[in-house]
From TrEMBL:
One BP annotation, GO: iron-sulfur cluster assembly
Pfam families linked: Fe-S_biosyn
Entry GO terms, CC: cytoplasm
Annotated ranges, domain Core: 4-98
Xref: NCBIfam families: iron-sulfur cluster assembly accessory protein
Superkingdom assignment: Bacteria
Official protein name in the record: Iron-sulfur cluster assembly accessory protein
Family of this protein: Belongs to the HesB/IscA family.
InterPro entries: ATAP, ATAP_core_dom, Fe-S_cluster_asmbl/transfer, HesB-like_dom_sf
GO molecular-function terms, A-Z: 2 iron, 2 sulfur cluster binding
Originating organism: Marivirga arenosa
Length: 105
């Protein structure tokens, strides 16, 4: 089971980036967290990027896209959804807790 959901719009944008932005062969989508401390998710920043797989990763695949998540980050992103927002004010990926619909950075 993949611990994070990626919306259809977000998958479409990831594929677009991988095809058109010179992402090196063998790279996949890295999903993770940065910051925070201790056992709390408070102060966590969610992150997306393109990277090669590392030994400490759990590897998944969604619609042909390799997804890499560090084993230590899995517990912080379980149940999260990555969405792609395109509006007049901003454009980009956001993490959403589907249970509360709260957007997290």
């Amino acid at each position: 089971m993949i611990p994070v959901k990626i919306s259809e719009e977000a998958l479409k944008e990831v594929k677009n980036i991988m095809e058109n932005k010179n992402i090196p062969e063998g790279y996949g989508l890295r999903v993770g967290v940065r910051g925070g401390g201790g056992c709390s998710a408070a102060g966590m920043n969610y992150m997306l990027g393109f990277d090669k797989a590392k030994e400490s990763d759990k590897t998944f695949e969604i619609e042909g896209i390799p997804i890499y998540i560090d084993k230590g980050h899995v517990m912080y992103i379980i149940g999260m959804e990555v969405r792609f927002h395109e509006g007049n004010d901003a454009r980009g990926f956001i993490f959403v807790n589907p249970e509360t619909e709260e957007e997290l950075k």
